[in-house]
Specification:
With about 150 residues, this protein is of the alpha+beta class. It has 3 helices and 7 strands. A 7-stranded antiparallel β-sheet has the order 1-7-6-5-4-3-2. α1 packs across α3.
């Protein structure tokens, strides 16, 4: 299994970062490798969504249960069907004490069912995670500046 946890300080409010990450239907507009996304079911505390991702010649679809907890700026995602044995990710957005921006903590745990896919993903994992984290931050900047 591959796991990764990262905390980064960003100059955007926790509410804005939470809004960017929880607005999953916009992912294909700004997230690299996300080629399609559709919400299947909306629930009082979140949703179920199907995402299609592509990297190089690989294309995969998977469905996740997304739990939204706006009061504490937390998002928890668990795959319910797809190419993973395990896929979980968690987001926490914590306002900084100085009132300037927030701390974003992201953790992911995953393992593909296919050993080949797992070895390919593992080799590219760091690059993919950094690029996606940068894309969320850039999206927040665009929204704050009125460009989105």
């Amino acid at each position: 299994m591959i796991s990764h946890t990262e905390t980064r300080s960003v100059p955007y409010p926790a509410e804005l970062m939470y809004a960017v990450v929880s607005d999953v239907e916009k992912y294909p507009q700004f997230l690299p490798w996300v080629v399609a996304l559709r919400v299947l079911v909306r629930k009082p505390d979140g949703m179920s969504a199907e995402m299609a991702v592509g990297y190089g010649g690989l294309r995969e679809r998977y469905t996740s249960d997304i739990k939204l907890t706006p009061a504490i700026h937390r998002i928890d995602v668990t795959q319910t069907s797809g190419p993973f044995k395990v896929l979980e990710n968690h987001w926490q957005f914590t306002p900084r004490g100085d009132g300037q921006g927030c701390e974003v903590t992201f953790s992911i745990l995953f393992e593909f069912k296919s050993r080949l896919l797992h070895s390919v993903a593992g080799a590219k994992f760091e690059k993919v995670m950094l690029k996606m984290a940068d894309a969320f931050e850039a999206r927040a900047k665009d929204i704050q500046e009125g460009n989105a």
